[in-house]
Amino acid sequence: MSHDLPLPSAKGEAMSGSASVHVQFCAEHPEELATFYNKLFGWTSHPVTISDPTSGMSAPYLWLELGGPTDVSAGITALENRSPTVIVGVDDVLATLSRAEELGGKRLQEPTHLELTGLASAQGSRAFAAIGDPAGNFIGLIQR
Length: 144
Description:
The chain is α+β, with helices and mostly antiparallel strands. It has a single domain (19-143), classed as Roll (2,3-Dihydroxybiphenyl 1,2-Dioxygenase, domain 1), CATH 3.10.180.10. Helix content is 15%, strand content 44%. The chain has helices at 30-41, 93-102, and strands at residues 19-26, 44-52, 57-65, 73-77, 85-90, 106-117, 124-132, 138-143. Strands 1-4-3-2-6-7-8-5 form an eight-stranded mixed β-barrel. Residues 1-9 have low confidence and may be disordered.
């Protein structure tokens, strides 16, 4: 299966209206953290599977429904151990990686396609990559 990624935009251009679309929390015991957020904010969790067909890696993930009018989603993973991750929806992952580097950021993860299954409203394949901003913050990029 071929997953062609779009070519980068012209140098110096600002990326089109990108928004924060997903926040990923990391926890050794995701279910316990989901219970905490449910009791605190009323967020509900749904077990899903996120996988990378290229590497064959697959892992459970808790998708959080935040409630109320929002375009932002959230989830909890046990795969990583760091502060919450902001994931920004972009039109062109490769162009955004290149532009971030031009502006002093670092490419932390090359584009890969992730598959999400288990929740109809979030299912599908999306290109994902990551940058480090000039201050060292990890920012995920996901193709809209």
